[in-house]
Amino acid sequence: MGLITPDPGLVFWMIVSFLIVFFILKKYAWKPVMSALSNREKAIENALRQADKVKLEMEKLQADNLKLMAEARVERDKILKEARLMKDQIIDEAKGVAQAEGKKLVDAARSSIQNEKKAAIKEIKDQVAILSIQIAEKLIKDKLAANANQGEYIDKLMNEIKLN
C-alpha cells in the first residue's frame, strides 16, 4: 500500500526538486527553446509567404505565356495571310507579264508575217513587171521585124500619144 498512498515527505521533495529543475530549465533552457521555436515558426511563415509569392508569380508567368502564345498565333496568322497575298500578287503579276510578252511575240510575228507578205508581193510584182517587159519586148521585136511594120507602129503610137 505504500505505493498507492504517497508519503508527504516524498511529495514535498518531489515538488522541491521539480521546482528546482523547473527554475533551472526556465532560466537556462526555456529562452533558447522558445527562441528556436519562434525562429522556426517565423521561418515556416516566411517559407509559406515565399511559396504563395512563387505561386502567384507562376500564375502570372503562365498567364503571360498564354498571352504571348495567343499573340504569336495572331502574328503567325497575319504573316501567313500576307504571304498568301504576296504569292497571289506575284502570280498575277507573272501572268500579266507572260500575257504581255505573249502579245508582244504574237504582234511581232504578225508584223514579221506582214513584212514578209509585202516583200513577197513586191517581189512578185517586180517579176511580173520584168516578165511583162520581156514579153512585150519579144512581141515588139517580132512585130517590128519588118521595116514597114515599124513605121506603121510608130505612127500608131504617135497618134495615140497626141490623143491622150
What does it look like?
By secondary structure, the protein is an all-alpha fold. The chain has one domain (8-163). It contains 2 helices and no strands. It has helices spanning 8-143, 147-163. The model has no long low-confidence stretch (mean pLDDT 88).
Order of helices and strands: HH
SS element count, helices: 2
Helix content: over 70%
The helix-and-strand class reads: mainly alpha
Shape: rod-shaped
* Low-pLDDT stretches: none
Number of domains: 1
Mean pLDDT: 88
Describe the main β-sheet briefly: none
Rg, please? 65 Å
State the end-to-end distance.
185 Å
Count of β-strands: 0
Range of strand content: under 5%
Q: Which SSEs are present, and which pair or pack?
A:
Elements: H1 8-143, H2 147-163
Record keyword descriptors for this entry.
93% helix; 0% strand; 164 residues
Short description:
With 164 residues, the chain is mostly helical.
